[in-house]
From TrEMBL:
Any Pfam family the entry gives: RhaA
InterPro entries named in the record: L-rhamnose_isomerase, Rhamnose_iso-rel, Rhamnose_isomerase, Xyl_isomerase-like_sf
EC number from the UniProt entry: 5.3.1.-, 5.3.1.14
Superkingdom as given in the UniProt entry: Bacteria
Full protein name: L-rhamnose isomerase/sugar isomerase
Gene3D superfamilies: Divalent-metal-dependent TIM barrel enzymes (3.20.20.150)
Organism whose genome encodes this protein: Arthrobacter bambusae
EC primary class: isomerase
NCBIfam families xrefs: RhaI_grampos
GO molecular function: L-rhamnose isomerase activity
UniProt keyword terms in alphabetical order: Cytoplasm, Isomerase, Manganese, Metal-binding, Rhamnose metabolism
């Protein structure tokens, strides 16, 4: 079996979770743009996500955001999704939009505010029981804008106490994944600003707590693949939020800004045992499609991850190890570059056809008439969008 055949054999293990909110309206900090065909309900978001999976075979689950995707009957929602060929995935909590959380949620110095935030997460766990979801993802906007505004050590202590109560509510097969972000909306300090803080907090919680790495949540020049390696080495990488950034947390299509970075990240994922159905590492998108159409944006995104994963699987690891041991810098770097510059798109098109998928999912979507249909069917009503 040659290297390409071996890589394609493993590629069937790739699964990428798509976020429900990516199908809603989004925009800049100054304007949210409306578009025809935008979902008005969580069911319509799931239907759009199912179309992505139908055409790519890469997106079998949909992440939900609470309360944006709140419904009365989650068991019925799970059944609805299954009828479309997808499952319900990660449950994302929200403690960053209510006025009460102005000075923090799980870190707040006000006990009643912390109580509300904790109870929200316990509610999310109950939703997970109904949806069959495995992961509770927590991203906090908590932090301060000015020196002296609050006791930054006390906030870490309160965060630990809050997380302990939430963690205690998890079921046996459920996990807590704690995301980090080095700034925004807090500008002096953020309570979970880096992988080290997330690692320290989740390590204290126990074996069901992990770190979520959002590829857009790093300062310019950060070696993200090093962080990926370290978290895998420590057994604490739980999930990714894939997107691209040029300046800050841009939430652009993954691989759009720096495809070589995505390639390097996927190499470390594969190298560290984070690739495959049994790896314990969930690959998810977290993007906002401000200008482009939502469904094609998600299709392009999962295809970008697939392409860079295929290229990473093409790395001649035996030759690479030999060059590394010999201290042959240029040979080792050349082996990396050879894999990255390999055009795998024709082979991937054949691979898709062999699995009953369209060779070109983007073209297939354009020809499907689905966009025209939802534009007509979804006229009127309240469109979903960021924060709704």
């Amino acid at each position: 079996m040659n290297t390409t055949e071996s890589a394609l054999g493993r590629l069937g293990e790739l699964a990428i979770e798509v976020p429900s909110w990516a199908y809603g309206n989004s925009g800049t900090r100054f304007k949210v743009f409306g578009t025809p065909g935008t979902p008005r309900t969580v069911q319509e978001k799931i239907a759009d996500a199912a179309k992505v999976h139908e055409l790519t075979g890469l997106a079998p689950t949909v992440a939900l955001h609470i309360p944006w995707d709140k419904v009365d009957d989650y068991a019925a929602l799970r059944e609805y999704a299954a009828g479309l060929g997808v499952g319900l995935g990660t449950i994302n909590s929200n403690t960053f939009q209510d006025d009460e959380y102005k000075f923090g949620s799980l870190t707040s110095s006000t006990e009643s505010v912390r109580r509300r935030a904790i109870d929200h997460h316990l509610e999310c766990i109950e939703i997970m029981h109904a949806t069959g979801s495995k992961d509770l993802k927590i991203w906090l906007a908590d932090g301060t804008n000015y020196p002296g505004q609050d006791d930054i050590r006390g906030r870490q202590d309160r965060l630990a106490e809050s997380l302990q109560e939430i963690y205690a509510g998890l079921g046996d097969e459920q996990r807590l994944v704690l995301e980090y972000k080095f700034f925004e909306p807090a500008f002096y300090h953020t309570d979970v600003p880096d992988w080290g803080t997330s690692y320290a907090q989740t390590l204290a919680l126990g074996e069901k707590a992990f770190v979520c790495l959002d590829t857009g949540h790093h300062a310019p020049g950060t070696n993200i693949e090093f962080i990926v390696m370290q978290l895998l080495r420590l057994g604490k990488l739980g999930s990714f939020d894939f997107n691209s950034r040029f300046y800050a947390d841009d939430d652009l299509i993954v691989g759009a800004a720096d495809p070589f970075q995505l390639f390097r990240i996927m190499h470390e994922v594969i190298r560290g045992g984070g690739f495959g159905k049994d790896s314990g590492v969930a690959l998810m998108l977290d993007q906002c499609h401000n200008l482009e159409e939502k469904i094609p944006g998600q299709i392009r995104s999962v295809l970008n991850v697939q392409e860079m994963t295929a290229r990473a699987l093409l790395i001649d690891t035996a030759a690479l190890s030999e060059a590394q041991r010999a201290g042959d810098v240029l040979a080792a770097n050349g082996i990396f570059n050879d894999a990255f510059y390999t055009d795998v798109r024709p082979v991937l098109a054949e691979w898709r056809e062999s699995r009953g998928l369209p060779a070109d999912p983007m073209a297939a979507y354009k020809a499907s008439g689905y966009q025209k249909k939802i534009n007509e069917d979804r006229a009127g009503g309240q469109q979903a969008g960021w924060g709704a």
